Amino acid sequence: MLRAAIQVLAETWRHLWFRDIKENPQWINDTAVRIRAGILLVIPLYMGLTLFDVAFTSHWVVTGNYIKDTFDTDFDDHILYHVEAYRRTYEYSFQTGVLFYALFEMIAGMFAFTARFSPTIWLATLLARSHRPYWKPLVPKRFAWSIGASLISVCLVFFNPDTFAHWVNAVWGSELLPETVNYMPRWIPVSLIWVCLGFMWMESVLGICLGCKLHALLVWMGVLKDECEACNNLSWD
Q: pTM above the 0.90 mark?
C-alpha cells in the first residue's frame, strides 16, 4: 500500500498535469484544471464575504454594557437609545496572506517548474487520475491566469493602500498617492471579486474558460500570435 502511494506521488512529480513536461508547446489536463479551479473557488468566496462585511455592514459595535432609553424616536418612529459602542478597526494581514497565496497559485500554474510547488496542482492531478485526461494547450490558460493575477494585484492594493502608496511615492520621488486614506473606491474590488468568482465558477462547473476565449479572440484579431490548436491536435486513429 505504501509502495503504491509512493509510486503515485513519484509519477505525479514527473508529469503533474502535463501531457509531456518536455514538449513544446506544452499541453495540460483540463480535467485537473477544472478540479483546481473548484478548489481555488474558496478564495474569491472568502474575499467576497470580507468585502461585503467592510462595505455594507455597520462600522460600529454595540458593547451591550450600557443601554438607556431616550424616550424619543426618529423620523421613522424608531426608538432611540443611548448606548456604549466602539468603532470597528479593520486589519487585513490574514486577507493579504490569502491574496498573496492566490497570486502565487496563478503564477505557479503558468510554468512547468513553478507548478511543482503548487499544492492545488498536486491535489488536482491526484484527484484527476481516475478520470480520462482531456488535453488542452497551456498558452491560453497562462493568459487566463495572468488576468487572474492582475485582478488579485488590484485587490492587494485595496487592502494595503498605504504600503502601495509608500512604494509608489518612493519610486516617484514625491507624494503621488496619499498614504493616510484609501484612494481606491470600494466598488472596484467588489466588482473584481464578482468577475473572478464568475470566471472560476464557469471554469470549474461549466468547463468554460473565458480567459481562453479572450485569448482566442486576440489571436483572431492579430493582437497575439499563437499556433493553431486544431492543427496540433490531429488524431490518426
A: no
